[in-house]
Amino acid sequence: MIKIPTKVLLVDDEEDFAEMLSLRLIELGEKVTVAHSGQEGLDTLAKTGIDVVILDIKMPGMDGIETLREIKKQYPIIEVILLTGHGSTETAVEGMKLGAFDYLMKPADFSDLAAKLEGARKRKDEQEERIRKAEAKLLVRRSGGAF
Amino acid sequence: MKNIRLLLVDDEDDFRQTLAKRLTKKGISPEQAENGEKALSILENKRMDVVVLDVKMPGMDGIEVLHHIKKRYPKTEVIFLTGHAATQDGVHGIKTGAFDYLSKPIEFEHLFGKIKQAYEKIEREEEKLKEAEFREHMEMQMVTTEKLASLGTLAAGVAHEINNPLAIINESAGWLKLIVNKEEMAQMPRKQDFEKALNKIEKGVMRAKRITHQLLGFARKDDSVFSEVNIMELVEEGINLVNMEAVYKNIEIVREIAPDKNTIWSDPSQLRQVLINLLTNAIYATNVGGKITIRLEAMDETITLIVQDTGQGIPKENLNKIFEPFFSTKPPGEGTGLGLFVTRGIVEKLGGIIEVTSKLGNGASFYIMLPRYFKIKKDLDQDERIQFLEHLAEQSNSTQ
User: ω into residue B105 within 30 of 0, thus cis?
Assistant: First the structure.
């Protein structure tokens, strides 16, 4: 079976971490783009089709929560997984209320991350499927069913 | 003044008894001794506040008795009675530590006044001492609180900073592992050595992660979720989680919990953490074939949960240290030294107290006293709590 790669955007100001995690995900067959700030992440989203964003909460400048808000405003269908180094689950909970798919505590267990990535991708696929079906219905209704 | 413990020491019986009689009329009943030896033997059995002491006595004289008294009972005040015009003795007495001296023949009112003054001095000293003790206690408590608070902040900062490089190590090792396990790498020279080292790195990271997460957990802000907690159910859950280890060591876990009165209002997830920590410790400490008893003593306002093991016990010198952070008797790598520290933190946050008793070789007992109904300062959901209280009332009605 050929794996369909998930298009991942990894946003983390910690460059070494972003690089190593992206290499690990690429090794598993995912397609990963790296950004080192919230703004850079948003710029990438404007240019590249992305399925799931893995987003660090604590970043200088535009932080993860702010970035998440912007992502959800502009691309509501893209799923976001939050990475927190905090140990405080409050921010993570706030993020999930804002529409994040899930969160992970750094250093994250890779099998957890992989499972959440898959879950996020699946949810996005299903949502896209529903949108397609709804659009098809709309089309049928507009044309009065007369093809 | 009514409670003053007074001793009269004089070899002249008439004088002494007259004095005693007059003092009794004033509401003070003194003890009496006719010589120094008798006085000291009385003092041995009963503490005295004030001693009225004659200087000139056969056998042990006043000065000598005074020496003994001041040496053994420094808090006892002594009033010297000297012979007529023997000021020398009086001065010598004061130098030795007497409160004051009176020359015979004495005026009763004068002596009575002196006794009163001496007693007031004792009362003042005692008050001062109590105040000093109280202040010292408060200061120590404040130091501990401050120490823990700053320690928490520091620990959380360190833990947070370490988590980032830790994550880098983790991802790097994970990536290498993925590569080494690729098909094209099957023939890689010394592949096993690489795998071995990578596994060690991952294990090391996990160990460090346990520590940092526990530290962050300790410093975590109050995000407790309160609800009605059934202690019996909580205990069962806790036992289930550690049962494998207990079965492996053939340890019997005994529950002594009455089915009624075991619901409280608290944070279930944090209490579960407390229970698991204590059970894990108990299992670790208990030898093969030992026994762990979990007992619940339910009162109206409080409950006490007791976890008792038959393990090797805690040496006396360690009893004060076990709740300190990073104190561990486990070999390096097995314990973080944070388990009981965090446990105490949780129990105190939930308005409770944790205590331990132990005798070396006779196991240890941990007591957790918790309020039945923890009053949260903020965010109280009145409705839910009222339901809980009504439920409690129903329960007690149905058991009657």
Answer: yes
